[in-house]
Specification:
By secondary structure, the protein is mainly alpha-helical. It is built from 8 helices and no strands. The protein starts with a helix and ends with a helix.
Length: 173
């Protein structure tokens, strides 16, 4: 398969994973900067099945991504949400999953966190999660708590937590 085809598919996935509505109310340029970073991201670093190695790569890339966002428009939480949206959609894309061996990472992929997901997880696990600060103020510690809750709920459904997003978004009340 032509290498430029894979690059083009990755660019398309970056565009579709980060629509303008992802960061409502954010400063101009955030969506374009996020898409540009993700368009060129080396996905092979995420082709691991070891949760600790995956988490290390994800944490490192989140910080690197955050530093590329326009000053005052991004945060750790914004970078992590965009990265998780992109990784989920790259995993769901047949060409990227095959080319970068992303199937290995299925059990490690995080659920993209946002207000809808946080609200549903808090309803499922009352008094077990910290208050949801919003994506812009999200810290690694709060994110980790929500990711553990998502993993627990997904396990009950015999799913990887990345897929729980489908259920939490489509079964809204």
């Amino acid at each position: 398969m032509r290498q430029d085809f894979i690059h083009t598919v990755q660019h398309k996935v970056a565009i579709s994973a980060i629509p303008p509505s992802t960061f409502r109310g954010s400063k101009a340029g955030l969506v374009a900067a996020a898409r540009e970073f993700l368009r060129t991201l080396d996905l092979s670093g995420f082709a691991v099945s070891d949760p600790k190695r995956f988490a290390t790569s994800l944490d490192r890339m989140t910080v690197k991504f955050w530093k590329t966002l326009p000053r005052g428009s991004g945060s750790w939480g914004v970078a992590r949400k965009a990265l998780n949206l992109f990784l989920r959609d790259a995993f769901y894309n047949t060409y990227l999953r095959k080319r970068f061996k992303l199937l290995r990472a299925e059990s490690c992929l995080e659920i993209p966190l946002d207000g809808v997901v946080a609200h549903r997880l808090r309803r499922l696990l009352p008094r077990k999660l910290p208050a949801w600060p919003g994506v812009k103020l999200l810290t690694k510690e709060v994110s980790d708590a929500y990711q553990m809750a998502a993993m627990h709920e997904a396990h009950k459904m015999n799913l990887s937590r990345v897929h729980l997003d489908i259920y939490l978004w489509t079964n809204r009340e």
